[in-house]
Amino acid sequence: MIESINPATLELNGKVKETDLEKLDKIFENSRKAQKIWAKLPLKARARKIIKVNEVVSQQFDEISLLISKEVGKPPSEAFTNEVYGVVDSTFHYYISVEEILGKVEEIPLGFYESLDKRSFLLYKPLGVICVIGPYNYPFAIPFQQIVQSLMAGNSVIFKPSSDTVLVGQKIQEIFDSINIPENLVQTVFGDGSKIGNSLVDKADKILFTGSTSTGKKIMQRAAQTLTEVTLELGGKSAMIVFPDADIERAVLAARWGVFTNSGQVCASVKRLYLHSDIYDTFLTKLIQLTKELKQGIPTEPGVDIGAMINEEQLNFVDKMVKIGVDEGAKILTGGQRNPNFKGYFYEPTILADATNDMKVVQEEIFGPVLVVLKFTSDTEVIEMVNNNQYGLTSCVWTKDIKFGQKIAEEIDTGTVMINEVVYTFALAPTPWGGTKNSGIGRSHGKLGFYEVVRPLHINIDQYKGPDLWWIPYDNDYQVIVENFKNIAKSLVVQDLDD
Predict the structure, then answer these.
(1) Which domain CATH number covers 370?
(2) Are residues 390 and 318 in the same domain?
(3) In angstroms, rounded to a whole number, what is the distance separating the alpha carbons of residues 67 and 462?
(4) Which residues does the annotation mark as catalytic?
(5) Do residues 463 and 239 lie in contact, with contact meaning Cβ atoms separated by under 8 Å?
(6) Where does a domain end: 428, 451, 484?
(7) What's the per-residue H, E or C state across 16-65?
(8) Is residue 460 in a domain?
């Protein structure tokens, strides 16, 4: 049995039976049978069936939010706004947009070949069985959205939740079981990734994984053996750049939320704060004051801003990294230790200053309520500092000059750059989500998310009455054709281009 422990109180939430490895073959067999039935339905009919989950979720807003809170350690109100609402919003968006994205047969212009009565079309087919491997930090929103997109596109889904959030995983299964879809179209398996992961990768048609970079690399290495497709949303070390002309009051509030929401256990949370030297002291003073005003406590109690971390292992890692930062020369301005007032996994909201870009605490992901603050003096300097990192998921630029902000954004090597905002773009269902470098490959959400769970099918139609010009025999008539092709090729040369 896999136990679910409340990270704030250390109480037992419940237990879930671990999936028997010997049953995986049957699980995949049933999944493929269900997928074949499901894929025969028209796209619009599939979408109409899946949108029914919104009705189910809307009847359980408080129940689901509380369950997330008890398994993850975040306040229920935060669980609702950041996860439950996002699921309903994104599912509705996919419902109204999927036919436009995947339902049209697209004709491809063929130029000269059209004169030979040849035409090409592009359409999208489901991949088959999609394996969704979810994370613990957003155990409801992240896998739910991936499951919805996979199903609407015509696939079946085998879902493995994090072992830290098995009850939320069980709840997701219950929601899909309550709507009218083929039996076994969505199946949830439970188990540690080290035990069950290889079998999932070997048997699936595609892996959608959200989690650590180290695990993502192992999945990709394993998938190479079977050429299984993967989409990997991995770690991050998101930077927030604040220029002197920014709205400082708003930027400080944004930084506080962007750092400490979900106890910093967010791949896109603000982890590096780059402050221009002209505002460094003013900004930092305000941020420290606001950080000290945060209320940390049992997340189900009223008025709590910051809850617990997921488990002791992650809390100890965060503490270890803070100590490394101090050894490297960083200075703790607030926090810097496990909160002694609680028996659960609480780490105090922490700010480290006097950091340099080469420090381990700046270069590596900490995944906890810890912010490192750095100073810069020029545009060129800060762009170089931000890009000098192994991660590239999100970053943000703060300035009142939007054109200038866009110019800086285009120079930053991340999947998303926000101007005068932090973190929240995961909630924007129409937009792509994913990163560069060690932050992963592929995209979820929006039309690019749909493209990740389908395969393009190119259909070429030929209605030419005679033999094609390039067919054998290569006789004298063929040589005349070759000369004609040479003349056509010469007409395709573009001349007199400006250097």
Answers:
(1) 3.40.309.10
(2) yes
(3) 58
(4) 233, 267
(5) no
(6) 428
(7) ECCCCHHHHHHHHHHHHHHHHHHHCCCHHHHHHHHCHHHHHHHCCHHHHH
(8) no
> Does the residue 465 lie in any domain?
no
Please state whether 423 falls in left (phi above 0), alpha (psi between -120 and 50) or beta: left
Give the angle 406-408-410 at the CA atoms, nearest 5°: 70
Distance CA 262, CA 260 (A): 6
Domain shared by 222 and 245, yes or no: no
Alpha-carbon span 206 to 200, nearest angstrom: 10
pLDDT by 10s per residue, the chain, length 499:
999 999 999 999 999 999 999 999 999 999 999 999 999 999 999 999 999 999 999 999 999 999 999 999 999 999 999 999 999 999 999 999 999 999 999 999 999 999 999 999 999 999 999 999 999 999 999 999 999 999 999 999 999 999 999 999 999 999 999 999 999 999 999 999 989 999 999 999 999 999 999 999 999 999 999 999 999 999 999 999 999 999 999 999 999 999 999 999 999 999 999 999 999 999 999 999 999 999 999 999 999 999 999 999 999 999 999 999 999 999 999 999 999 999 999 999 999 999 999 999 999 999 999 999 999 999 999 999 999 999 999 999 999 999 999 999 999 999 999 999 999 999 999 999 999 999 999 999 999 999 999 999 999 999 999 999 999 999 999 999 999 999 989 999 988 766 5
What six digits make up the tokens of 176?
């899909």
4: which 2 tokens?
A: 């679910």
Q: Output phi, psi for 123, to 5 deg.
A: -140, 170
Which domain-ending residue is among 217, 233, 249?
Answer: 233
Conformational region of residue 240, where left means phi above 0, alpha means psi within -120 to 50, and beta covers everything else: beta
Contact 41, 150 (CB under 8 A): no
Residue in the structure block whose two tokens are 């943000």: 396
How many distinct structural domains can be found in the chain? 2
* Cα-based distances in Å from 396 to 187, 241, 406: 38, 6, 10
Domain that holds residue 215: 2-233
Amino acid identity of residue 307, one-letter, is G
Measured from the Cβ of residue 437, the count of other Cβ atoms closer than 10 Å reads 20
pTM above threshold 0.85? yes
Q: How far is CA 190 from CA 10, 31, 131, 207, 258, in A?
A: 21, 16, 13, 16, 31
Under 8 Å between Cβ of 68 and 139: yes
C-alpha distances out from residue 212 to 30, 137, 162, 330, 440, Å: 30, 11, 12, 25, 10
Residue pointed to by tokens 């229920």:
76
